């Protein structure tokens, strides 16, 4: 854990209540090349620009993307690549994804934006019954593997019912789709480029809370990070913590406070939820004997349940305590009561102590 605390100075960002916090990432050597300090939405913009530059078959489309989109992730792309490759669509999520499936089926790279993850549900049938099954229903004669669906997801501090949801678990249930969620700018750039170039349809959820708040040095060159490969951010011996997206920064703060009480935490960023890296999590739990999973989505049916069940099956005789889950509540996402809904640092810290002292 001491090694982790030293690395927690790699880049600074702003926490949910405005306080500064530090986060970390152990990158492969290639990511150590010099770059510029940018925020997450700029890193996404860089990835999209590289995708369009390196592949003439790549297209970016969605509601309002031609002027940069609500979060400015597509700023400047239409001026550089023209309206034939970067263009607005009607306000119809089913149509956006359906068009993307057709475009990808013809051998193109279709990069579709759903403006908020909360509004991805009208496209649910297209994603679940068409995109996920296209390869299987044709016996691999056809596929829409060039399809990437980008969408901002999760809490933002004032989004309420319709702009704060975390729907990742719905899509993790569907064979044929990949689900990817980055925690930081350089992770976002590398994982998005890998998703765009992956031969399978990918849903790429971007933590909207971090668009402007997460800042770090991001290489300007073209690079990809492997999908379905979790990362051990902090090494520890007493308990394993697993999370993804914006929740990682909250979990890191809890790890730091737990260290003050003599608890050594091992923190893992899953990054890809489906297919997820069971082996890395299992190896960690076999060492620590304890597991805590945290995510913003409601606890019932959340992806933390799948992780808990899988690890219980694989590591039952090594577990020293029940698997803990610190998640959102089983209610619609609130507005003024968001602080009660969210899995906060103190909630995670209490669960860490309870699990270690079980």
Automatic annotation (TrEMBL):
UniProt cross-references to SUPFAM superfamilies, sorted A to Z: Thiamin diphosphate-binding fold (THDP-binding), TK C-terminal domain-like
The protein's Enzyme Commission number: 1.2.4.4
GO biological process, one term: branched-chain amino acid catabolic process
Pfam entry (one): Transket_pyr
GO cellular component term of the entry, any: mitochondrial matrix
GO molecular function, one term: branched-chain 2-oxo acid dehydrogenase activity
Gene3D superfamilies in alphabetical order: 3.40.50.920, 3.40.50.970
Keyword rRNA-binding: no
Coiled coil: none
Cofactor(s) of this protein: thiamine diphosphate
Alphabetized UniProt keyword annotations: Mitochondrion, Oxidoreductase, Transit peptide
Signal peptide, first to last residue: none
Catalytic activity field: N(6)-[(R)-lipoyl]-L-lysyl-[protein] + 3-methyl-2-oxobutanoate + H(+) = N(6)-[(R)-S(8)-2-methylpropanoyldihydrolipoyl]-L-lysyl-[protein] + CO2
Domain Transketolase-like pyrimidine-binding stretches: 38-213
Subcellular location field: Mitochondrion matrix
Record text on subunit structure and interactions: Heterotetramer of alpha and beta chains.
PANTHER family assigned: 2-OXOISOVALERATE DEHYDROGENASE SUBUNIT BETA, MITOCHONDRIAL, 2-OXOISOVALERATE DEHYDROGENASE SUBUNIT BETA-RELATED
Protein name as catalogued: 3-methyl-2-oxobutanoate dehydrogenase (2-methylpropanoyl-transferring)
Organism: Nelumbo nucifera (Sacred lotus)
Lineage: Eukaryota, Viridiplantae, Streptophyta, Embryophyta, Tracheophyta
């Amino acid at each position: 854990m001491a090694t982790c605390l030293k690395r927690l100075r790699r880049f600074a960002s702003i926490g949910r209540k405005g306080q500064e916090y530090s986060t970390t990432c152990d990158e492969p050597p290639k990511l150590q090349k010099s770059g510029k300090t940018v925020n997450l939405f700029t890193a996404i913009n860089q990835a999209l620009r590289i995708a369009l530059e390196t592949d003439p078959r790549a297209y970016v489309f969605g509601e309002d993307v031609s002027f940069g989109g609500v979060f400015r992730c597509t700023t400047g792309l239409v001026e550089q690549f023209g309206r034939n490759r970067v263009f607005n669509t009607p306000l119809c999520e089913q149509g956006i994804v359906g068009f993307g499936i057709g475009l990808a089926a013809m051998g193109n790279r279709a990069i579709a934006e759903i403006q908020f993850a909360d509004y991805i549900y009208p496209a649910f049938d297209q994603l679940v019954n068409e995109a996920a099954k296209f390869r299987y229903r044709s016996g691999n004669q056809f596929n829409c593997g060039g399809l990437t669906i980008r969408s901002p997801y999760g809490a933002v501090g004032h989004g309420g019912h319709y702009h704060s949801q975390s729907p990742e678990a719905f899509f993790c249930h569907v064979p044929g789709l990949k689900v990817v969620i980055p925690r930081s700018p350089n992770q976002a750039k590398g994982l998005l480029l890998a998703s765009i170039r992956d031969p399978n349809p990918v849903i790429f959820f971007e933590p909207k809370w971090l668009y402007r708040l997460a800042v770090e040095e991001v290489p300007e060159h073209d690079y990809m990070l492997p999908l379905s490969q979790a990362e051990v951010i902090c090494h520890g011996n007493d308990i394993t913590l697993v999370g993804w997206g914006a929740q990682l920064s909250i979990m890191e703060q809890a790890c730091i406070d737990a260290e003050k009480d003599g608890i050594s935490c091992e923190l893992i960023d899953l990054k890809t939820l489906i297919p997820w890296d069971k082996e890395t999590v299992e190896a960690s739990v076999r060492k620590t004997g304890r597991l805590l999973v945290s995510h913003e989505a409601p606890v019932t049916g959340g992806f933390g349940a799948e992780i808990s069940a899988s690890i219980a099956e694989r590591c039952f005789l090594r577990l020293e305590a029940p698997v803990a889950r610190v998640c959102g509540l089983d209610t619609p996402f609130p507005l003024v009561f968001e602080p009660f809904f969210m899995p906060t640092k103190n909630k995670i810290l209490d669960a860490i102590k309870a699990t270690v002292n079980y």
